[in-house]
Write a structure and sequence with these properties.
Length: 299
């Protein structure tokens, strides 16, 4: 499930960038994908299991934050990042999120970890230095870098809250409510009546929009959320990093955004470092493995 969602997300990075090049800005793309996914998922949920869409007052704050952070702000920041830098570098920065998940598990949840946690974090930082080429003129746009790092922090929160949410609600209704919140936020940031409707009459733009909304957003988000019912947040975040490699490959083929060797090496270091960091937990029992990485209930 995670490999499938990572592949769809990877292709979506290039598709979203191509869509932006048609004149649709980042906020409009974020609103478009959130609104389309909300209509699709809520429609399916109401048709198949209408009772699952019932909402309690206690879970409302969590759903609002979950929807805003993970389903609107993270994609928006990502779209801002890829509009100002290559898809591969933007994803490498965003996927520091698993490091933040590991730090949360160690210092907030006080989980015991093996010494290789610190080796993994050191490798990840070294990899980021290679990606940024800090020894020369770094090819990183300041706003794009800030957007990608902000997305990393919120993506870490998304993984943790998603594990919490799927323990109490089915993935379909959880994802539907999150996208409804994201769509409402998008309508405020970029009202529908301000959309350049005439641009979507072009066949290329229309096909790009269909991919971004359904195959690049609706399907992978639902699949990834469902995966959190079967694996802990750390495992999901590690495996999701396949998107970095796949997205860079897609961008290279479709947009000639090849990374130089030193940045490729940096990407490998980040991946290795994050895997070491995420697998440094000392498991207590098999029955508590999933719950250890779930955040306390949000009320």
């Amino acid at each position: 499930m995670i490999v499938c969602s990572a592949t769809l997300f990877a292709v979506n990075g290039t598709m979203a960038k191509l869509l932006q090049q048609t004149g649709v800005d980042a906020a409009q793309v974020a609103t478009l994908r959130a609104s389309g996914a909300a209509l699709a998922l809520a429609g399916v949920a109401l048709a198949l299991r209408p009772r699952s869409m019932r909402l309690t007052r206690r879970e409302a704050p969590m759903l609002v934050f979950y929807g805003l952070a993970g389903f609107f702000v993270v994609p928006l920041l990502y779209l801002v990042a890829i509009s100002r830098m290559s898809v591969g570098i933007a994803l490498l920065l965003e996927y520091l999120a698993p490091v933040f998940v590991a730090l949360w598990a160690r210092f907030v949840q006080h989980q015991e970890v093996r010494p290789r946690l610190w080796v993994g974090l050191a490798l990840a930082v070294a990899g980021l230095a290679c990606v940024a080429e800090v020894w020369g003129d770094a090819d990183l746009d300041p706003l794009g870098t800030a957007a990608a790092l902000g997305a990393a922090v919120l993506l870490a929160a998304w993984f943790l809250l998603g594990a919490h949410g799927t323990a109490r609600r089915d993935p379909l209704s959880l994802t539907a409510w999150a996208f409804l919140v994201a769509a409402a936020a998008g309508a405020v940031v970029r009202p529908w009546w301000d959309f350049p409707v005439e641009r979507f009459t072009d066949g290329r733009t229309f096909l790009l929009t269909l991919y971004v909304v359904f195959l690049g957003t609706t399907a992978p988000y639902f699949i990834l959320t469902a995966a959190l019912r079967h694996l802990p947040a750390t495992s999901v975040s590690i495996l999701s990093m396949l998107e970095v490699v796949l997205a860079a490959a897609v961008a290279w083929v479709a947009m000639d955004e090849a990374l130089p060797p030193v940045q490729l090496a940096g990407g490998v270091l980040i991946l290795v470092g994050v895997v070491l960091a995420e697998t440094a937990r000392k498991e207590k029992t098999s029955t508590t493995r999933r719950d250890e990485l779930v955040t306390p209930p949000v009320t």
